[in-house]
Amino acid sequence: MSSVEVKTDKRRRGHSKGRRVKASILAEVRELLGEETPRRPDLLIEILHRIQDHLGYISVDHLAALAQEMSLSSAQVYEVASFYHHFDLIKENQTPPPLTVRVCDSISCSLAGAEDLINNLQASLGSGVRVQRVPCVGRCQEAPVAVVGKQPVPQADTVKVKRLLDTANSEPELPDYLDYKGYLGGGGYTLLQRMETDESDDRHPHRLSPEQVIQCLEDSNLRGLGGAGFPAGRKWRILREQPAPRLLAVNIDEGEPGTFKDRYYLERDPHRFLEGALIAARVVGISEIYIYLRDEYTAIRSMLERELSALRSNPPCPLPPIHLRRGAGAYICGEESAMIESIEGKRGMPRQRPPYVAQVGLFGRPTLEHNMETLYWVRELLERGADWFTKQGRNGRHGLRSFSVSGRINKPGVHLAPAGITMHELIDEYCGGMQQGHEFYAYFPGGASGGILPASMADIPLDFDTLQPYGCFIGSAAIIVLSQHDSAREAALNAMCFFAHESCGQCTPCRVGTEKAVTLMKRNQWDRELLEELAGVMIDASICGLGQAAPNPMLSVLKYFPQELEHDA
Question: 407-422 burial by CB neighbour count: b if 16+ within 10 A, else e?
């Protein structure tokens, strides 16, 4: 018998390729999932979370058992689990420390002393505690931020972290928010009920038709508030023309360093966005709603689970199925098609376009994709009217913007201000001025990817389309303020390190370009010609916005902060 025949004969007798599944581990996985959990591929990430939450890690044996239980290949399960930062994969006979302290080292936390905090914690905590540096956790106004287990520590220092470790309390507390009962008492879901009335029923003169709703959105010029700024009303019209069934995917994966507005609104009034989502479903003809929430927002997830249960138990009208899906620590999933891939239980790899998600989106169906805040404004606009919204604004701009502001100002936080406000006006009127001993030096107008502008250019109106002529953009309106004690060059390097860490790796210009840029930016002397050439390739050839926008802070330093590079010459 030849060697080929021997190998084939062994496979026939049950000697399959790959890791042998241990019966005890398979039984553990089955018990953890229970009979009620479907073994569908789109639930792979949810099931991985269940194992991670239960054990504190995921072993290679658990991955092999899960692959068999879900009838998936081991390669598929491993490549998904290893793609996301929040899955702690370990090899045989390994066990991670029982508790992990994560410290954000992104721009705002870095300005507030995150590096010293990391060093102090690593030196003072025992071997039973692991200290990890992590990218932005969405709490930039409380910088520096540590997370003990799942419990955030605002304005963290070694004493606060140790105190929390001593209490053994690693579960976050639910915020004090407006619950379902309170929301109904304030007129909540009334607009949704008005849309449920039969169109031919003349006894209900206050009925809202789909056309009235879309017209209100168009008249107000409400644009997508996740960063892209596509007009909401036009998007709803496009989706209504697509074949049924249609789906809605709500993006709450705000991972852009400097952004925390979605968390701010969710922690106060979650049903306002849910009503907006249900109105969108009614207008567009949505069959099912998928809510994608970033994993760092543990307390919000518990709160949403509770409020969705209350909503389903006593619905104001018939509801479509609403699914709450959990991210797993991947910034790229803020990109709409990468988010859709993740909801489907895959790696968060952006899709090539066309087709667009409005045509072929979630599970191959036409999909209305929206940032949470866009839907949050729907009730307000329908109640107050488009004129109320468009009368807001300054410097020839219209509407309101939710600015997430952090850095060297006295009042960091979410500030609802007129669209078109300037940076000088925002700092003076809303942010309480600069911190004592700090003078305004520079600012990121749109998070880590939005570029950097000097204080001398702080009279530019802040809105969609106003910053592009200067090589910047407003994005999700995440503003980080730097002072004379800070370096735009170092802030740009921090941003590029973040992008290199978060690149999905699908396309070479982004995967290699971000890492090469970090190497070049760490040198004492910047090679301007090479950096500009590298940026051009990344902008022109990257598949999605991550690689296309990653060079913006670096290019801003070359253009607007030459004094920081003079010693390179």
Answer: bbbeebbbbebbbbbb
Exposed, middle or buried: residue 1 (CB in 10 Å: 0-12, 13-18, 19+)?
exposed
CB 105 within 8 A of CB 140: no
Compute the chain's Rg from CA coordinates.
25
DSSP annotation string for 316-369? SS----EEEEE--S-GGGGSHHHHHHHHTTS--PPPPSSSPTTTS-GGGS-EEE
Nearest to 499 by CA among 488, 487, 479, 513: 513
3-state secondary structure of 153: strand
Q: How far apart, in whole angstroms, are the C-alpha atoms of residue 239 and residue 33?
A: 36
Per-residue model confidence (pLDDT) at position 568: 52
Mean of the per-residue pLDDT values for the chain? 93
**In angstroms, rounded to a whole number, what is the distance separating the alpha carbons of residues 493 and 332?**
19
Cα(279)–Cα(435) distance, rounded to whole angstroms? 43
pLDDT in tens, 545-563: 999 999 999 999 999 999 9
Residue 14 scores a pLDDT above 80: no
Cβ atoms of 96 and 57 closer than 8 Å:
yes
d(CA 397, CA 29): 56
- C-alpha span between 222 and 219 (Å, rounded): 8
Distance in angstroms (rounded) separating the CA atoms of residues 436 and 429: 16
Q: Are 255 and 138 in contact (CB under 8 A)?
A: yes
**CB contact at 8 A, 369 and 357:** yes
Cα–Cα distance for residue pair 325/331, rounded to 1 Å: 15
- DSSP 3-state helix, strand, coil percentages of the chain (rounded to 5)? 45, 15, 40
Tokens of 9: 């004969």
Q: How far is CA 318 from CA 193, 194, 282, 434, in A?
A: 10, 13, 10, 50
Q: Give pLDDT tens digits for 105-160.
A: 999 999 999 999 999 999 999 888 999 999 999 999 999 999 999 999 999 999 99
Lookup result for tokens 């503003």: 479
| Cα–Cα dist 314/393, whole Å | 39
Angle between helices 74-83 and 60-70 (to 10 degrees): 120
Closest CA to 426 of 441, 439, 445, 399: 445
Tell me the three state secondary structure of residue 32.
helix
- Give the integer Cα–Cα distance in Å for 266 and 304: 9
Cα separation of 173 and 155, whole Å? 17
Q: Hey, which residues does 453 pair with through a beta bridge?
A: 443
- What is the rounded distance in angstroms from the CA atom of residue 450 to the CA atom of residue 432? 24
Of 360, 358, 398, 373, residue with least CA distance to 236? 358
